[in-house]
Design goal:
globular, 3-stranded antiparallel beta sheet, 54% helix, 5 strands
Length: 217
């Protein structure tokens, strides 16, 4: 996982570099020091700070990296369909970097992970899921869009803080006959974001295997 300089984070938040250095020195923002004494902020710590404080992110691209993420408005449920339409457009036109950047920008900017999954991502994937009716191209679009969302969810998971020792366990799976990856991965990510020690067994899990996992965890 990459890290940020105080200048990088300051530019992404639209504040002065001295403000970021003061947050580090005051203990409000965790950082490390290089051998030369320079402050470096782990990406996960930067995201944690932004989400905890509600600081507006004016340049999400400086945090999420490659992509074309524009500033994202603070979470508002009414805005979810519009963002979902934007995500649908990016996925339909095979712009995976921009779709990734948009989803990461939502998370970095403080949107609840549950709202991202059950809002823009669900909206876009449901709409894409109807394209297979129009021919083989729709199947290609659906599969590559699912892959983009799964990769981005996995990346977001790297930004979710590890659960505390003794955190309650959350165990989930899709039953035999259900081949879909996205729903259980969404659920696991949301529960992890809420502080659970999540264990996602994925799709096509026989009940006997789930019983064994319940006994184990």
């Amino acid at each position: 996982m990459r890290d940020l300089s105080p200048r990088d984070l300051a530019r992404s938040l639209g504040v002065s570099e001295s403000s970021v250095k003061r947050w580090v020195d005051d203990g409000a923002l965790a950082a490390m020091r290089t051998a030369g004494g320079h402050r470096r902020i782990a990406l996960g710590e930067a995201v944690k700070f932004v989400r905890r404080t509600g600081a507006p992110v004016v340049r999400p691209d400086l945090i999420v990296g490659a992509g074309t993420a524009a500033p994202v408005a603070a979470y508002d449920g009414a805005a979810a369909p519009g963002v979902g339409q934007e995500l649908f457009h990016l996925l339909e036109h095979d712009d995976a970097p921009a779709a990734r950047a948009l989803l990461l920008a939502l998370y970095v900017s403080g949107w609840p992970l549950a709202a991202i999954c059950d809002g823009p991502m669900r909206f876009a994937l449901e709409k894409i899921g109807t394209l297979w009716e129009h021919g083989p191209e729709g199947i290609v679009i659906e599969h590559r869009s699912t892959d983009t969302c799964l990769r981005t969810l996995a990346e977001i998971r790297t930004l979710v803080p590890a659960p505390d020792a003794g955190a309650p366990a959350a165990l989930g799976a899709a039953p035999a006959g259900d081949p879909y990856l996205v729903p259980s991965m969404m659920s696991a990510a949301v529960l992890a974001d809420l502080g659970y020690a999540d264990h996602n067994l994925g799709p096509e899990v026989p009940m006997a295997a789930l019983d064994q996992a319940i006994d184990h965890y």
